[in-house]
Amino acid sequence: MMIKKRAIGVVNVYTTEPRQFSDAEIKLIQAVANQAAVAIENTKLHEEAIAARNAVETGKIVNRAKAALMKQMGLSEDAAHKLLVKKSRDKYRVFIKMNTAQNKFLNFMPRHVLG
Predict the structure, then answer these.
(1) Which end of the chain is more exposed for a tag (fewer CB within 10 A), N or C?
(2) For helices 23-73 and 77-105, what crossing angle results, to 10°?
(3) Structural domain range at position 92
(4) pLDDT score of 104
């Protein structure tokens, strides 16, 4: 599976009986594999674009929150940023504690969830 000159995967083809593939069959399998490679690469690029867009949107929200804190509380940009980071970490800790308690209550262990 090739994108330009870069291999991104391999396609193995098996038969029930040993045999030699014809040149036409090999070309067909290569074409299908390369189309699959293009689809995989396009999906990867699409996911990266979505992640970049989400990062920009998150940055905008953080900047608006920081500006509001600076205005309402008279904080410097650095102090507003530190406050947002602290609040975010505090909420994350609460989430982890709630998740752990919920898992104990439901008798879930990580091995149950992960298989």
Answers:
(1) C
(2) 120
(3) 76-115
(4) 76
Between the two ends of the chain, the Cα-to-Cα distance in Å is 30
Looking at the structure, tell me whether residues 18 and 70 fall in a common domain. yes
Q: What is the pLDDT of residues 57-79, one digit of tens each?
A: 999 999 999 999 999 999 999 99
66 lies in the same domain as 80: no
pTM of the model: 0.58
User: Quick one: 91 and 102 in the same domain?
Assistant: yes
12 plus 44 within the same structural domain: yes
Same domain, 67 and 90: no
Predicted pLDDT at 108:
67
Number of domains in the chain: 2
21: phi then psi, degrees, rounded to nearest 5: -80, 145
Query: What would the pLDDT profile of 6-38 be if each residue is shown by its tens digit?
Result: 888 899 999 999 999 999 999 999 999 999 999
φ, ψ of residue 17 in degrees (nearest 5): -120, 140
DSSP string spanning 12-29? ----SS--PPPHHHHHHH
